[in-house]
TrEMBL record:
<dbReference type="InterPro" id="IPR055377">
    <property type="entry name" value="GH3_M"/>
</dbReference>
<dbReference type="Pfam" id="PF23571">
    <property type="entry name" value="GH3_M"/>
</dbReference>
<dbReference type="GO" id="GO:0016881">
    <property type="term" value="F:acid-amino acid ligase activity"/>
</dbReference>
<feature type="domain" description="GH3 middle">
    <location>
        <begin position="384"/>
        <end position="464"/>
    </location>
</feature>
<keyword id="KW-0732">Signal</keyword>
<dbReference type="GO" id="GO:0005737">
    <property type="term" value="C:cytoplasm"/>
</dbReference>
<keyword id="KW-0436">Ligase</keyword>
<comment type="similarity">
    <text>Belongs to the IAA-amido conjugating enzyme family.</text>
</comment>
<dbReference type="Pfam" id="PF23572">
    <property type="entry name" value="GH3_C"/>
</dbReference>
<feature type="domain" description="GH3 C-terminal">
    <location>
        <begin position="480"/>
        <end position="594"/>
    </location>
</feature>
<protein>
    <recommendedName>
        <fullName>GH3 auxin-responsive promoter</fullName>
    </recommendedName>
</protein>
<dbReference type="Pfam" id="PF03321">
    <property type="entry name" value="GH3"/>
</dbReference>
<feature type="signal peptide">
    <location>
        <begin position="1"/>
        <end position="19"/>
    </location>
</feature>
<dbReference type="InterPro" id="IPR004993">
    <property type="entry name" value="GH3"/>
</dbReference>
<dbReference type="InterPro" id="IPR055378">
    <property type="entry name" value="GH3_C"/>
</dbReference>
Length: 614
């Protein structure tokens, strides 16, 4: 099979991408499109192995001769090679790489080097990853392909969702979405979060027009870069359009929980604005003020209805506030897996009977998989890999029985396998080769193959690999930490307390090192209870290295630090000040960042030391 023969399937994808952009006046066009996009996915997933080989061929063909690939391919003429042979050659010549390997190349692009470094097409935009997982934002290439795949996965997922939860055409989405600052690099390239680029792209408007679902807030609110002001306006406008709202959405669940925490505080002010058609002096950005004031007008009846609902809901701690305020909403839609799981409880509380639909799996590097089963509870959701978006490889990870050495944590790695060779039940680290110029890039996410949709794997997201607590021979992942915190917060809940947010740190400056867990809580609980929570968490880390070290006191007692109310908002403000966007924010679950630790330690009001191993 010659690479030239790849044109047919690629044309199919191109045709769909173009179809997604044609805004027709035909009322049925979207129904037809939904049928077409589902058939398309059926076809590419049935032929996932071949499609992957062809996708790799296309990426290499498009970027033939770029500096990064030249390093490994030399002057080899790949154009006339058989696609399968090229796939094997690629894996044998091009090494696995991490972001650090790409950093010097991306930096040169950021500094204005226009030579074909990673891609033949010049890169004019760079994305900033949220940086809240590793504590450091990464710069990554962003191209038109990135926005197109965002639109494509959005429409694919929407087609599957509409089978179960159809929404009314012409309705609105109360979307808690936020752009980041858009910076200019030294070389004049625009840099911002990937979602920011998407909201600014033509594709975002196309999505609204094609799905005939419009976000409640104008661009000035989304692009305000002042998340508190944007949240206020999102809520205000969402309430103004209350009867048109068909769903409530955000990128990550955190933003919805954050928005309703704001609502609990500011609902009276919002009601007063709705009543009088005014806008709170909290909104200081002139463009945002004007855009919102242009939409609102006095609505005293609506304001008093909302007020009545709020007074009543407040008495039940805001249980079920979402369906009460938006009775026509069909579901809440957001990423609820992975590091968002701790917010699920609060989200369920606000949503009550309203279904929660967990959104798709992607990263700043590229989209990965789509949720084909919107009815599944968020805890059970998996993601079918879209084989045309990138070339995916999977590093098999097998847990070490006894991991007493340092190095790559707790796992023995096997040779990467292509998508066609993954096995159900096996855990893997994902490796991406993208149209945006990343080649065999280790994403750092651990996934488990849950099953298959036709020939493409469905993945459970397990955790991010590099996020671990370790003092010496102990190794705990984000997942282990999450489980321990869950056990501890069960005790807290039993006594009427509520965990608002948490993070952790492995303290190794003083001997013996120990784990510190920072909790922000709501509600009055006795110190005795918090001491018990601390001990329960310590005992819940079952990693062999940790248990042995605790027994021999080479790791000290776990320390629970209770921070004052609002501390995690300060953490959020710190990240937003450094260019993150609320929409992509994930509380770092483990940190070594000095500034963050300073904020946490200054805000600590109580400390408890575990007695679990006394
Ligand atoms: P960023 O590029 O910084 O916005 O973050 C991307 C990362 O967020 C991914 O690599 C995952 O670790 C995590 N992530 C994205 N989507 C999901 C999802 N649906 N479930 C769990 N984690 C996700």
């Amino acid at each position: 099979m010659l690479l030239r023969s790849l044109q047919a399937p690629l044309l199919l994808l191109q045709r769909l991408m173009e179809a997604a952009q044609v805004v027709t006046s035909n009322g049925n066009a979207d129904g037809d499109y939904q049928y077409e996009i589902i058939s398309w996915f059926d076809s590419v997933s049935k032929n996932a192995a071949m499609v992957q080989t062809e996708t790799l061929g296309q990426i290499l063909h498009l970027n033939y001769g770029v500096e990064y690939l030249k390093k490994w391919f030399g002057d080899m003429k790949i154009q006339d090679m058989d696609a399968c042979a090229l796939e094997s050659l690629y894996a044998s010549l091009v090494p696995l790489a991490s972001h650090a390997d790409f950093e010097p190349f991306i930096q040169r692009i950021a500094d204005g080097d226009t030579a074909p470094i990673l891609t033949q097409q010049p890169i004019t935009t760079l994305s900033l990853s949220s940086g809240t997982t590793e504590g450091r934002q990464k710069l990554l290439p962003f191209t038109r392909h990135s926005s197109q795949t965002t639109l494509h996965i959005y429409r694919l997922a929407a087609a599957y969702r509409s089978r179960v939860y159809p929404i009314r055409e012409g309705g609105r989405i109360l979307e808690f979405i936020y752009s980041s600052k858009q910076l200019k690099t030294k070389g004049g390239l625009t840099a911002g979060t990937a979602t920011t680029h998407y909201y600014a792209s033509e594709e975002f408007n196309i999505k609204q027009e094609k799905t005939k679902s419009f976000t409640c807030s104008p661009q000035e609110v989304i692009f305000g870069v002042a998340y508190k002001q944007s949240t206020y306006c999102h809520l205000l406008l969402g309430l103004l359009f209350w009867d048109e709202v068909e769903l409530i959405a955000s990128t990550f669940a955190y933003s919805i929980v954050q928005a309703f925490a704001t609502f609990e505080e500011q609902w009276e002010e919002i009601c007063s604005d709705i009543k009088d058609g005014t806008l709170s002096s909290r909104i200081t950005l002139p463009r945002m003020r004007k855009a919102v004031l242009d939409i609102i007008s006095p609505s005293p009846c609506l304001a008093s209805q909302i007020e009545a609902i709020c007074r009543d809901s407040k008495a039940s701690n805001w249980y079920g506030i979402v369906p009460r305020l938006w009775p026509n909403a069909k579901y809440v839609y957001s990423i609820m897996t992975g590091s968002m799981q701790p917010y699920l409880k609060k989200l369920k509380h606000y949503a009550a009977s309203l279904p929660l639909v967990s959104a798709d799996y992607g990263s700043t590097e590229g989209w990965i998989g789509v949720n084909l089963d919107p009815c599944l509870p968020p805890e059970d959701v998996n993601f079918a890999v879209i084989p045309t978006f990138s070339y995916f490889e999977f590093i098999p990870l097998n847990k070490k029985k006894q991991d007493l050495t340092s190095g790559t944590v707790g796992y023995i790695e096997d040779e990467p396998v292509p998508l066609s060779q993954v096995k159900i039940g096996q855990e893997y680290e994902l490796v991406l080769t993208t149209f945006t110029g990343l080649y065999r890039y280790r994403l750092g996410d651990v996934v488990e193959v849950a099953g298959f949709h036709n020939g493409t794997p469905k993945l459970n997201f397990i955790f991010r690999r590099e996020l671990i607590l370790t003092v010496n021979i102990d190794k705990n992942t984000e997942n282990d930490l999450q489980l321990a915190v869950e056990r501890g917060s069960e005790v807290l809940n039993k006594y009427g307390g509520e965990l608002v947010d948490f993070t952790s740190h492995a303290e190794v400056m003083h001997q013996p090192g120990h784990y510190m867990i920072y909790w922000e809580i709501k509600g009055e609980v006795e110190e005795r209870v918090l001491g018990e929570c601390c001990g329960v968490m310590d005992a819940s880390f079952v990693d062999h290295g940790y248990v042995v070290s605790r027994r021999t006191s080479s790791i000290g007692p776990l320390e629970l630090c209770i921070v004052e109310t609002g501390t995690f908002n300060k953490v959020l403000d710190y990240f937003i000040g450094n260019g993150a966007a609320l929409g992509q924010f994930k509380t770092p679950r483990c940190t070594n960042n000095h500034i963050l630790l300073r904020i946490l330690n200054l805000c600590t009001i109580k400390r408890f030391h575990s007695t679990a191993y006394n």
